[in-house]
Amino acid sequence: MIRFGLFRIGGFGFAVTLEQIKKILQNSTDYSLPHLPGAVAAVLVDGGELVPLLDLSLLAGAESQLSNITQGYRVLVKSEYGIVALPADLSGKIVAEQKCELSATNEQKMNFGIIGKFIYQSEEYSLLDINFLALEMTQDIWQNQFDTGGARRHK
Amino acid sequence: MLAFGLLSLKNQGVRTVLGDCMTVVGDRKLIFRLGGMGFLLDLSEVVEVVTQITDSLDPGRSDIGQGIVSALQFRQTWIPVVDPALKLDVESTVKMRDKTAVILRGTEGNWALLVDQVDKLMAADNFQSCAIPSLLKVAAMGFYSQIQLLHNEPMIVFEPERYYGSAVVSV
């Protein structure tokens, strides 16, 4: 049975498979570092390792909404390139696949870094392509892609 | 605010006061803050920490091309003042006159590093090494190459040679 973690940040709902989730932290401390890429909001420390915090609210619009979230989770997710943290408010939940309505996404209309859409209790959640986002949001090429409105797939 | 008696050093110079324990100076780290971020510096590179610099600054003697924002009168001579916040693109709310100058020993003379505040001295064994994740290595390139953790907070290992060259600059 496949299960998904469903989260929201600044009005943007996103989903990741449970097996991709390493850990969910609450009230962890974020730290800034010089010259972080524009889509990396901060880093956090987990188990003695630095983890980049991706500003997923950028997926929903041009402006970051992270500063509006005073309390929340940091969802640590495994990618091919290392662990990344995703910010989320406290409405997160874990649900089985069969409880969601998976809408097949037309690849031509797919948003950047999103490989599918879930509907759960009338709310939409975007299934993230974590490998794609981890790489592109940390290499400072995110803004360029965002500007294109990019509908790209990560191979 | 400053631990390990560093406050008592500010008018005497680190080398002088630590004269009895110079063998352990290299095992200590000076922690300073810039835009809220933590940095650590090997104490063996520090000559003195000067907290009152307003009357000793001459901003007219600058060479922005070399990162020099001012000159500081230190021990009867003018030395270059480098603001690392410029290169690091760090936003600091502390005005220049309120900053602290960490006087560093260069290959061709002393120079001053402007920081928001000096926190404390810590023994090196308080720090835990921490690899920069591969996803952030490109971002760090050219600015820092090591990070250590102090009580789970990342501290950037400050590498002075990245901020001020060995050539003497007339100020």
Short synopsis of the structure:
The complex is a heterodimer of chains A (155) and B (171). With 155 residues, chain A is mainly β.
Highlighted features:
heterodimer, A: 155 residues, OB fold (Dihydrolipoamide Acetyltransferase, E2P), six-stranded mixed β-sheet, 2 helices, 11 strands, 10% helix, disordered C terminus, B: mainly beta
What does this structure look like?
The complex is a heterodimer of chains A (155) and B (171). In chain A, a hairpin with a 2-residue loop joins strand 4 and strand 5. The relative contact order of chain A is 0.23. Chain A has 155 residues and is mainly beta. Chain A has one domain: OB fold (Dihydrolipoamide Acetyltransferase, E2P). In chain A, 10% of the residues lie in helices and 43% in strands. By secondary structure, chain B is mostly beta strands. Chain B has one domain: OB fold (Dihydrolipoamide Acetyltransferase, E2P) (Beta Barrel), CATH 2.40.50.180. Helices cover 10% and strands 39% of the residues of chain B. Chain B is built from four helices and twelve strands, in the order ααββββββαββββαββ. Chain B is globular, with a radius of gyration of 16 Å. The N terminus and C terminus of chain B are likely disordered.
The Rg value of chain B, from CA coordinates, equals: 16 Å
Query: What fold name stands as the CATH topology of chain A?
Result: OB fold (Dihydrolipoamide Acetyltransferase, E2P)
Q: Describe the oligomeric state of these chains in a short phrase.
A: heterodimer
CATH superfamily of chain A: CheA-289, Domain 4
How are the secondary structure elements laid out?
The complex is a heterodimer of chains A (155) and B (171).
Chain A: E1 3-9, E2 12-17, E3 21-26, E4 40-46, E5 49-54, E6 73-79, E7 82-88, E8 93-96, E9 101-103, E10 114-120, E11 123-128, H1 130-138, H2 142-148
Parallel strand pairs in A: 2-11
Antiparallel strand pairs in A: 1-2, 1-8, 3-6, 4-5, 6-7, 9-10, 10-11
Chain B: H1 14-17, H2 22-25, E1 28-34, E2 37-42, E3 46-50, E4 57-58, E5 68-74, E6 77-82, H3 84-88, E7 100-106, E8 109-115, E9 117-123, E10 127-130, H4 137-140, E11 147-150, E12 153-157
Parallel strand pairs in B: 2-12, 6-8
Antiparallel strand pairs in B: 1-2, 1-9, 3-7, 4-5, 5-6, 7-8, 10-11, 11-12
